[in-house]
Amino acid sequence: MRDFPSSLPPSLRFGLYFLLILAFLIGAQAWKTPAPPALNSPVAPTPTLVATPSPVIMENEGEALATPLPAEYLENTTQTNGIILGSVILVLIVIGGTLSVILRRRRDDDPPGFEATRGATDDISESP
C-alpha cells in the first residue's frame, strides 16, 4: 500500500488525479456560493434603485479637460512594483523548474559513456 499511486497503471492514475482535482474544484465552488433561500423564509425586500448622478463637464475656455485621477491611484503609486516583482519571480521559478526537468531527463536518457563522445561527429566512415 506504500506504493499506491505508482502501482496503478498510468491511465488509471491520470483518472484518479483528474477526479481528485474535479472534486476539489466542485467543493470550492459549492463552498463559495451562498445557499439558496428556503421556501418558507420571509420575502427579501426588493432593492431600491438609486439614479447615478450625471457627469460634470469641466471646460476651460471651451476646451475639455482631462479627467482627474482618483485619489486612490495617487496614494498607491508604488503598489505595482510589488506586483511586477512577484510576477517576475514566478516566471523565473517556472522557467528554472522547466529547464531543470529538461536537463535531468536529457541526462537520464543518455547512454553510458555518452559524455566522452559528446563532441564527436556522427559521420562514421567505413573502412575498406
TrEMBL record:
Region entry Disordered, spans: 107-128
Membrane-spanning segments: 12-31, 83-103
Keywords: Membrane, Transmembrane, Transmembrane helix
Protein's UniProt name: Uncharacterized protein
